[in-house]
Amino acid sequence: MHFTYKTYIFSRPGSRWRTKNLTYKISKYPTGLNKQEVDKEIAKAFGVWSGETDLTFTRKSGHENVHIEIRFEVGEHGDGDPFDGPGGTLAHAYFPVYGGDAHFDDSERWTIRSYRGTNLFQVAAHEFGHSLGLSHSDVKSALMAPFYRGYDPHFILDRDDVDAIQALYGEKTRHGSRGPSPPAEEDPELCKDPKVDAMFNTKDGETIVFKGKHYWKLTDNGVASGYPRRINSTWKELPTNIDAAFTYRNGKTYFFKGTQYWRYINTTMDGDYPKEISDGFTGIPDHIDAATVWTGNGKIYFYKGAKFWRFDPASKPPVRSNYPKLIQNWQGIPNHVNAAVTYKGYTYFFQDNAYYRFNDRTFRVDDADPAFPRSTAYWWFGCKSANRGTLGNDHWPFAFANNLDVADIDTHDDYGSLDSVGDIILDA
């Protein structure tokens, strides 16, 4: 069942705020949630948009005048558009020219980080898009699509949403694609040798780097303070020198080394591991180079040497007979990658001291200035003395092949539902 958002579309196209420093307040909270938790989720929802622009959002309280007022109401609540009870319309919002306020139906079961009920963060982020001037999108994967699709623990803003908000407020002021200028503190080990073993996102959206016996947490500015840490101090019984890792839609993280793999829930081993790759991931070779869940279709991709495999745990067999295929089908990506990770709607591939940004919408390495490959040390780890330009003499390691097989990258593949697949997916 689809539940709808509602916005007031009589506003003229392109309506936007004249200032980039906006204020908001929550005048009326939902009845079923802790106020502090609501404050965090609302701030996170605004952060979806400030992460791609120079917009700032400051929460106010009391009787202060603000740009965006947020209220949780039931039925008729004074704006001439009453809510309809559980289901149906979840919320509605006004464009900037009409005030920018956002109202949520308090008859809904608002939840946080749960597949049950209606996810507050995702609905709020959608409504605030309207409060900033965005209309509904006809791109099904976009946040601004007119239907609520359910909780997504690995939510990222679609490229369509990014393009739309930046058309109104401009791009975020920063040097390149990995956030602001490098941080003041650098990690000597990563700056000296930026080649990594594996990279992955946790179910909470943190980006983790594995190298040897250590791991680092990354931020938009580079390496978080307090790192490196020992892998086995956090993921007990996990070996060092991991080959690859990814977190799947079930919220579980999978680590691969040699012929074996391990499964963890957060940092706790989930059962009796290790297990053989040939048993849990039939059709996938041992000693893989990298793995990631691709945002284009939600399926798992494994890379080794010059080849890649697509693994779909909902299909039988999970690997189609026309695999493996050549990595050169991923236009601009070299063979023998060391790691792969998704980040804000892109897939990043790492090889030795360099990385490539693969555009999941155009199915090729992005054209950019400086061109790819770029220095992992500078752009990801904040090493100020590293090369910030294009690495190597050639921008592209080989001639482009044809586009990926449409059947293999169809962004409208049926992902299934975690409510129905859940923990039985992937060797449970």
From TrEMBL:
Q: Which GO terms describe its biological process?
A: collagen catabolic process; extracellular matrix organization; proteolysis
Which residues take part in binding Ca(2+) 1? D106, E108
Hemopexin repeats by residue range: 193-238, 239-284, 285-334, 335-383
Record has Nucleotide-binding as a keyword = no
Output the Gene3D superfamilies linked to this UniProt entry: Collagenase (Catalytic Domain), Hemopexin-like domain
SMART domains named in the record: HX (SM00120), ZnMc (SM00235)
Q: Where is the segment annotated Disordered?
A: 171-190
Q: Which residues carry this modification: Phosphotyrosine?
A: Y273
Indicate which residues the UniProt annotation says bind Ca(2+) 2. G99, D101
Residues annotated as binding Ca(2+) 3 are D84, G85, D105, E108
Binding sites annotated in the UniProt record for Zn(2+) 1: H77, D79, H92, H103
An example of a GO molecular function for this protein is:
metalloendopeptidase activity
Mark the transmembrane ranges: none
Provide the residue positions that the database annotates as binding Ca(2+) 5.
Answer: A245, A291
Boundaries of each Peptidase metallopeptidase domain copy? Answer: 13-171
Q: Which residues bind Zn(2+) 2?
A: H126, H130, H136, M144
Q: Does the keyword Cell division apply?
A: no
Q: How is the co-factor bound, per the entry?
A: Binds 2 Zn(2+) ions per subunit.
Listed InterPro entries = Hemopexin-like_dom, Hemopexin-like_dom_sf, Hemopexin-like_repeat, Hemopexin_CS, M10A_MMP, MetalloPept_cat_dom_sf, Pept_M10_metallopeptidase, Pept_M10A
Cofactor(s) listed: Zn(2+); Ca(2+)
Record: active site: E127
Quote the record's binding site residues for Ca(2+) 4: D197, D243
What family is it from? Belongs to the peptidase M10A family.
Kindly provide the name given to this protein in its UniProt entry.
Matrix metalloproteinase-14
- Give the species this sequence originates from: Lasius niger (Black garden ant)
Classification from the root reads: Eukaryota, Metazoa, Ecdysozoa, Arthropoda, Hexapoda
